[in-house]
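Problem statement: downstream parser choked on a complex file, so we are re-checking the raw output for the flavin-adenine dinucleotide run. The parser issue turned out to be on our end (a line-ending mismatch), but while we're here, posting the original submission so the record is complete.
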Amino acid sequence: MRFLSAVSALSLLNLLSPLPVLATDWSIATADNTSALADFRPLLSPEATIALRGSCLFNNLTSRWREWHAPNIAAVVQVATENDVQQVVRLASKLKIPFVARAGGHGATESLSDAKNAIQIDFRKLNQVKLNSNGKTARIGGGANVKQVIDGLEAVGKRAVTGICECVGLSAPILGGGHGWLQGQYGLAADQVVSARVVLSNGDLVTVSEKSNPDLFWAIKGAGHNFGLVTEWEYRVHDTKEHQWSYEVFIYSQDKLEALYELANKMLKDQPAEATHWGYIVKAAAIDPVHPILWFGIIYDGPTETARAYAKPFHDIEPITVQAGEGTLHDLATLTFQDADGAGCAYGLTSLRYPIGLKSYNVAAVRKVYDHIDETFQKVPEVSGSFFLLEGYSTQGVQAVDSASTAFPHRDDEILVTSYVQYTPNSTIDPIAEEFGKTLRDFLLEGSDDPEHLRAYVNYANGDEPLEAVYGWDKWRLQKLRQLKRQWDPKNTMKYYVPFV
Ligand SMILES: Cc1cc2nc3c(=O)[nH]c(=O)nc-3n(C[C@H](O)[C@H](O)[C@H](O)COP(=O)(O)OP(=O)(O)OC[C@H]3O[C@@H](n4cnc5c(N)ncnc54)[C@H](O)[C@@H]3O)c2cc1C
Ligand SMILES: *[C@@H]1O[C@H](CO)[C@@H](O)[C@H](O)[C@H]1NC(C)=O
Ligand SMILES: *[C@@H]1O[C@H](CO)[C@@H](O)[C@H](O)[C@H]1NC(C)=O
Ligand SMILES: *[C@@H]1O[C@H](CO)[C@@H](O)[C@H](O)[C@H]1NC(C)=O
């Protein structure tokens, strides 16, 4: 990565608590202390592993981005084959043991904590990335994470729509829609799926595509966490480009907020498909020890000159610093604190998100958000490592797809905003943090195009939102989902990720 000038590390980085150090005892717990689990072993491939509570392996495999309100896991089955998934699901369903899929471990929504004494079906060994001979699609395992997909494709000269954060899984974002840098050009992650191999709650395996089980194919592109476990995706890929990505990061003091977000509104109107606006409101003690700063990045899939020309107006509102450069997708992840070593991948903090989809910025509402953040950080320093994320992805590719053709209901939104209220786990802070996050979202909702109808991305959903806010206010959407649910998961076994039955 090439820096033309650099800012000092933000407090976001300092907030990282070290990961827990594990003992080197890697002895795998045997499954023979419960009769139920003993039944699993003979059904599984030799490469599959089972880990029970109390073992080091168990602790390693169950630790996640947010432990707060996490699923309560009794045993982990690390599956190694598609048949392993089928066997575990079949037996767990028969024995009525709840199960939850696990890939990147960044899932964080209230209903996950409804899973009690559950089996974690751990997909992380199913992480293959293989280019098909047509050069247009790849087969990607249901447990691959963003970094594995990016690296695996880059090695064969390809790229695909993925999320930003390197350690987040690929599957869960797809199942809920899936936002990323390339969506303006190619559409959502869900739009890249040609077919998927899905294990149903009875253990049966089905293939879904436009031709095969098209109704289930529709459902897994937006409401997929509730329908089945995906062992493999057939996923669209594109040739990598000659040039690197270009970026400029502007740091502004708070008095520039109105000018910045008015300009962003203006520029979002004809934002090129290659450009992303990425904003944080965050404390950067090295720049301002008291008040949060405005971090604003223009990420551009194009040559530096084009990117600089596009971002020029942001120079005119007098940033404190500008950091400009070019780099790979990995460099972009680092730049936005979402690389494997960055804040986005750190485990162990309590983190609360309250997402809202918007058509444009109501600048007065963004001001209210800022002022409330500033005041709260001073009053409750425990939460002052939180950040507020304003994602202005380009949307051409997303809007090119017919909205009714997938379960993802928010194609008309231009901006995705959420707080990440983060702090060292502390039950005294929990209610304060919840109130804080809700208040920030309410400011934006009140100032939005449609204050009666919140729109909340399922993959960010806190879990307190009305179901219509998550799955769509058009009545037919939830009706259709519930009807499909009766057909494909009649016992509602898959109900731990924003369930609608
Ligand atoms: C730091 C951070 C950055 C993020 N960046 C982005 C982003 O750039 N774009 C975006 O769209 N979202 C993003 N998200 C949101 C993300 O989509 C969700 O948090 C998602 O649930 C994480 O998936 P995971 O595999 O990491 O988590 P997990 O907890 O492993 O999985 C979450 C849920 O997905 C389901 N699931 C996982 N694997 C499978 C499978 N193979 N088959 C069926 N169901 C499965 C299960 O229901 C599981 O409970 C981000 C989240 C965080 C915390
Ligand atoms: C297995 O046995 C140990 C020791 O008796 C116990 O602590 C643990 O809870 C058991 N595991 C399960 C899944 O029952
Ligand atoms: C789990 O173990 C792996 C392999 O040693 C290690 O890379 C990883 O950091 C561990 N994860 C946690 C959360 O401890
Ligand atoms: C939790 O937060 C409260 C309120 O700020 C504080 O008094 C307390 O010391 C914190 N507890 C821990 C364990 O950090």
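For whoever reads this later: Residues 33-34, 52-54, 74-75 surround 2-acetamido-2-deoxy-beta-D-glucopyranose (ligand 2) (CB under 6 Å).
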